[in-house]
Write a structure and sequence with these properties.
α2 crosses α10, α3 packs across α7 and α3 packs parallel to α8. By secondary structure, the chain is mainly alpha-helical. It has ten helices and no strands. It has one domain.
Length: 216
């Protein structure tokens, strides 16, 4: 029983930390405010809700189908760990430098999305909230579930993280006023550093497993 609680708690913390740092809701709050400045406060709240819901459903789908995708394309867990580590490290480095990746949002995507329902789904839901890094993390975490029932832990983590993301985005203007842009940048850099450490650990796990297999 103790081992079960310990392993699930470790996996839960890994899921929460990885997803939250990759989505980086504090970092994307200013972007959301800029993209939705022409909408009313009620519409902004609806956009935050629909965007978070879209992102959550996307991440859950990739988390559940992660193993099937691996098997279909013949991808090993080690290869995905190494590739995922590279993506995470790149994302963490950009967060450490306080930059927003071009894959998250472009001016063209903003101009094409006029209706608040459209903009909530894309580019806010995908790829602003559920970007390539978060999707990759969902698939990678699904491949590392300690037991079958750990999928429930992963799904619960996604729901919990996206609920937190929604609350942050819903009150983004208040958070920015309270913390200031300097405070948000400091937190963003700390989250970037944490994500880079997670990325290095994924690289160590993936490369270490491959080397053991080669030496056997």
């Amino acid at each position: 029983m103790i081992d079960f609680v310990h392993s699930e708690l470790e996996f839960f913390l890994l899921c929460i930390t990885t997803l939250f740092t990759l989505i980086n809701p504090l970092g994307i709050s200013p972007i959301l405010l800029i993209m939705t400045e022409r909408f009313s406060p009620e519409q902004k709240k609806a956009i935050a809700w629909k965007g978070s819901l879209t992102a959550g459903m996307t991440l859950i789908v990739f988390a559940v189908l992660g193993s099937l995708i691996f098997n279909f394309f013949g991808i090993t867990i080690e290869a995905f760990q190494i590739m995922g580590g590279i993506i995470f490290f790149r994302s963490g480095l950009r967060m450490l430098e306080a930059k927003v990746g071009r894959s998250r949002t472009t001016q063209t995507e903003q101009d094409e999305s006029e209706d608040h329902d459209d903009i909530a789904i894309s580019p806010i839901g995908i790829p602003l909230i559920a970007g390539p890094g978060a999707i990759t993390a969902s698939m990678l975490l699904s491949s590392q579930t300690p037991e079958f029932y750990s999928y429930g832990t992963l799904i619960f983590s996604i729901i919990l993280v996206l609920s937190t993301v929604y609350l942050i985005l819903r009150n983004g203007d208040l958070i920015i006023k309270g913390m200031g842009y300097t405070g948000m940048r400091i937190i963003q850099r700390i989250m970037g550093l944490i994500l880079m450490v997670i990325a290095v650990q994924f690289e160590i796990n993936g490369i270490g497993t491959v080397l053991k297999q080669l030496l056997q």
